[in-house]
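Project standup — Tuesday

K.O.: blocked on the structure for the chain from last sprint. Re-posting the sequence here as requested.
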Amino acid sequence: MDPNESPKLTAIILTLNEEKHIEACIQSLEWTDEVLVFDSFSDDDTVALAEGAGAAVLQNPFENYAQQRNDALGVIETDWVFFVDADERATPDLGIEIRHVIRDKAENAWYVPRHNMIFGKLTLGAGWYPDYQLRLLRHGYASYERPVHEIAVVEGETGYLENPLIHYNYEDKAQFQKTQAKYTSYDAGILFEEGIRVKPHHYLSQPLRQFWWRYVTLKGYKDGWHGLRLSAYMAYYEAVKYWKLAQLWNNRLDE
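H.V.: unblocked you, prediction finished:
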C-alpha cells in the first residue's frame, strides 16, 4: 500500500432477522469505506433494508459464531475489518479514533469498549463496562476460535480504544432471561466436558460469589437499584448453570 494512502476499512455486520436494528447500525458506519452485511438467511426484511441503506449483502449458512466471522473475513479485501453487531452503534468520535489508529499505529488488532444499554439504562457497573470487545482487526492477522463466546486469535500486538460502541443490549427482562438461559446451557456443557461435578454447597456458594463479584467487586452498586437487580439476576443464573450441570451428570448416569 502507498504510505500516503489511508488504509481501507470494511465494517462487517453479522445478521439473522435484524430488521429492527440494521438500518441504524449501517447509518452509524458511514465513515467506513464499505459495509458488508453477512447474513444467515434472514426471513424478515433484514436483507432488503440493508441493501436499501447502501450496504453490500452476502448470505452464508450459520454453523457457529467463530465459523461465521472467519467466513466473513475470507471474503473481504480491505486492509482492516471492523466487526459490529446489528444492535450496536458506532459514534463519530469512535470513527475518528479508528481512522487514526489504523493509519498511524502498529498494532494488528484493537479492543473496543462498549456502553451497554440494559432495560433502557446505561449500565456502567456489574461487569458491563468497559466490556472490551476485540473487533478491529488488521486483515490477515486474526482468526476466530470457539463456537460460542468466540475469541479472536491475533498475530502481533493489540491495543485498546477509548471511544465506545453503543450497545442496545437487553430491552426487557424477557429478552435477558432468554439469552441467559442459552448461555447457562452452554457454560454448563463446558464444565461438564471438563469433568467438573456439582457439590451441594455449589448451589449456594457459587451464586453468592457471583453476586459479590458483580455488585461489590465490579461496582454494580454504582448503578443503584438497577445494579442490584442485575447482580441478583446473574447470581440466580449462576445457580441455574450448576443445576443444569447436575442434570448433565444425572443423564450420564442414566445412560
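K.O.: great, moving the ticket to review. The mean pLDDT is 95. The CA atoms of residues 40 and 151 lie 20 Å apart.
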